[in-house]
Amino acid sequence: MTQLTKRIIIGVIAMVLIALIALGAILIGAGFYGWKAAQRAGNEAATMQNVKTIAAVEIQYYNTHNRTFGTLDQMIKEELLSAKFSGNPPAADGYIFTLSMTTKTSRRPASYTLNADPQNAATGQNHFYIDSSDSTIRVNPNQPAGATDP
What we know:
Layout: H1 3-64, H2 72-77, E1 91-92, E2 95-102, E3 111-118, E4 127-131, E5 134-140
């Protein structure tokens, strides 16, 4: 084998190795993107279930506490919710939960609103909302959801 043939073989092997490394990097990048998308979808599914759970517990609390709704801390203290909803602000499964209460008066009943918003773009895209007047979970992909969202 001549010196020129050896150099050509080494050059071809080097180009094949570079191509394989580049292909591996592309596959790793695509896999990482897919993993992040799956993680966001999992966070959103868990958050929808968390919103449903909080709404159900609020109804239970309302019926056993003189027609008043409970704060997250009150419901945790009574062991109606797990401690994962504690904190200021409470965050679970990549989402921040905001529970707003209106106390009852002689003219209006007690009420609540619950928002669940992603901590950042990596943890979720959709924003969720529910309130005491309707059991429908409202979703907005662009901003905090409200009562008028679908």
